[in-house]
Amino acid sequence: MDIIALHLKDIKVPDTSSKVYKDECIFSFDNPETNTGLYVSLTTFLGLGRDHVEKYFEKTCQAVFLHIRREKYEVSSPQQGDGPEKKITRLAIGVAGGFDPTSSKKYEYQDFYQIVVLPNFTTFKWPNEELPEIVKLSVKAIIDLPSASKLAEIEALSGTWDGEVRAVSKHAHGLKQLDNGIKIPPTGWKCEKCDKTDNLWLNLTDGSILCGRKFYDGSGGNNHAIEHFKATGHPLAVKLGTITKDGKADVFSYSEDDMVEDPNLIQHLAHWGINIANMEKTEKSMLELELELNQKTNEWAALQESGGALKPIYGPGYTGLVNMGNSCYLNSVMQMLFVIPDFIHKYYDAGNEYFKNAGLDAPDDFNVQMAKLAHGLLSGKYSVPPPSGSPVDADPPGICPQMFKNLVGRGHPEFSTKKQQDAQEFLLHIFTLLERYSKNSFNPGDCFKFQVEERFQCGSSKKVKYLTRSELILSLSIPIDAAINKDEVSAYEARRAEAESHGKRLEPESIVRPKIKFFSCLESFTQSELINNFYSSAVKENVTARKTTRLSSFPDFLVIHLKKFTLREDWVPIKLDVSIEMPDILDISTLRGAGPQPGEELLPELEARPPAPPMDEGVISQLTDMGFPIEACKRAIFNTGNSGLEAATAWIMEHIADSDFTDPFIPPGLETSKFEPNPDALATIISMGFTPDQAKKALKATDNNVERAMDWIFSHQDELDDVKSPPAPQFRDGDGKYKLVGFISHMGTSTMVGHYVVHLLKNGQWIIFNDSKVAMSENPPKDLGYMYLYERV
């Protein structure tokens, strides 16, 4: 005990405000289940793996640690039928209440503790009454307190909607119920307007029983329940077959267009003679159907290449990432980024500098966490073959980037939750963080940056105007009309309709998707378009202009995003189920813009900006009430000639995936090469205490984007007194010939749930990264991707 006594002055007892890092090492992915366990400092409560604990001791002289080692045992699952059936209560995968893909396996854990004193790794058993009191108090608190990762997760989820909580319907109290003598039998239900005997909804106002909506794949009902609402206005309906003895069921409000809670459901059902004590759940809930529906198409099997036994691959660069409950979007994006040489160099080759210089705040340092992730993925330490004799279906190795996820999602309304997210939006979020935390150092995200050139030609004067903007992803619309197999698709749709008319469903393997050549998508980006109400500074009035878009520079790595997510005419979000013929070798040289040409006359600079065109404030209010950003609403109203709500909503449906959808709206022709800050954005930043010059500088550096401008301000504090214009962004440029080296795919028919996987070309071999499973790809489905990564040849 004498060796411990030498360090008693440094030992502290954590309290409820302390962060205890006992889940994993702050510099690596070592954790209590790793062979060498985890060492938690009794001074700072930081967790360290065996490779880092000695370096940490040398730097800090903190010598006393709690060593945690955890053993994991697989136990037999109870036979099916024992105990209540697990109910899915969240539209999510891998979270509490959601679908559990590993539910067939059950594990138990046992933790082993001991006190370790460096530098000689002298050990003392735990529990141990002979230990000094301060040591016992410190260790007990470390064991009992929640980990820092768990606290961060709870904090991030605070106040968010994670898919479980439904709002109480505004119709629940005071719902009108007719006394028409109808009594609902306990079984034998049938739609009153067709032969459907499943997916039936009881209208709580008039007692009618009608079938529900048709699902994405053509299954479901015939829309009779919603047609009844449109005819009668009776808002609430309960799905028959989902009513349970505890008074729970799927309740839908047609007027609120959402699943809702009805706290008076028992009384509302009793009005129609339904005694819930006699009810049994016989149908799948809408959540269960949604999860099941996302796995019905053969896309799910194709993207995971689940038709055969794929050969696992191990070693440096082949480490999987554990799915932390709908985190597959993060896993796929980060796997893709760490095949880029600039990322490997900064965060792997030079990553040790971050560890060497990190202080006690390292867990919250973005660059440290990026370096930690790089070493976890690329070192090969956590990607080793299973021991000889392991079960064939043994869990594959992998790392769990929980600390990284907590850090990059902190404060973000979407990425801080456990809901499924869009991989393209997350990639843009990572680019923003890279810009913020690479202030005085090399930004590896610059290899994606390119410049877009927009050329406008006035229809009256024929004079031209050139504008440029910076982009990181090339987003392309999908022209369905350009499908090269329209006859096959039509024949398939006819067969499917015939099958459905007989209550049958075609096998997923028979699906025929529209096939579209990639260059048709590219043409939709480059083809010129007519712009109405373009303000011409030459004739000083609104005219028709022609706009042409090209690229002024070609990046080292080109990310192509296909806009597969859209809105149906009835506002239901859907994903386009199409096959795009993506080339292995891509030449975009013809997309290069050349700037002003000899003989062209430029439109004169605006002497004074004319007043903004009038817009119907009532329509703006209605659109914003629907949840659309105000700048998008202004853009929609302007582009539809201020012609009302219906035209504006139709425009929004068509343009919702545009890259500038939420950007500050400036009417065409009023843009200027001389930067002018958006007045509303300028006022917002000034209201936070910054000077007008500082606000203008930040907005210019970030293309008038308020959120990015605030990030820029906080990462350029030392430049706030220097109000000179920020330097123009630098763009790498080169030849326009590229090769395909990776693609991220989204499987599932709904935007609300689904799964992402990524295929990467490594050493001439395609590899599939499906969360923690990493294997050689036998048939990479290049035509079904969502985002594609091309490298300059």
CATH homologous superfamily heading of the domain at 2-145: Zinc/RING finger domain, C3HC4 (zinc finger)
Subunit arrangement of the protein: single chain
Q: Enter the CATH topology name of the domain at 2-145.
A: Herpes Virus-1
* Percentage of β-strand residues: 15-25%
* Number of DSSP-assigned strands: 26
- Total helices: the number is 22
The major β-sheet equals: 8 strands, mixed
Radius of gyration: 30 Å
Low-confidence stretches: 77-99, 157-164, 293-298
What class would the helix/strand composition place it in?
alpha+beta
Indicate the CATH class of the domain at 2-145. Answer: Alpha Beta
Overall 3D shape = globular
CATH architectural label of the domain at 2-145: 2-Layer Sandwich
Provide a descriptive summary of the structure in words.
The protein is of the alpha+beta class and 793 residues long. The relative contact order is 0.10. Residues 77-99, 157-164 and 293-298 have low confidence and may be disordered. The protein is 27% helix and 18% strand. Among the domains are: 2-145, Herpes Virus-1, CATH 3.30.40.10; 200-293, Herpes Virus-1 (2-Layer Sandwich); 679-719, Helicase, Ruva Protein, domain 3. Strands 13, 17, 21, 22, 23, 24, 25 and 26 form an eight-stranded mixed β-sheet that branches. Strands 2-1-3-4-5 form a five-stranded antiparallel β-sheet. It has a five-stranded antiparallel β-sheet with strand order 7-6-8-9-10, covered by helices on one side. Helix 12 (366-378) packs antiparallel against helix 13 and helix 14 (423-437) packs parallel to helix 22. The termini are far apart.
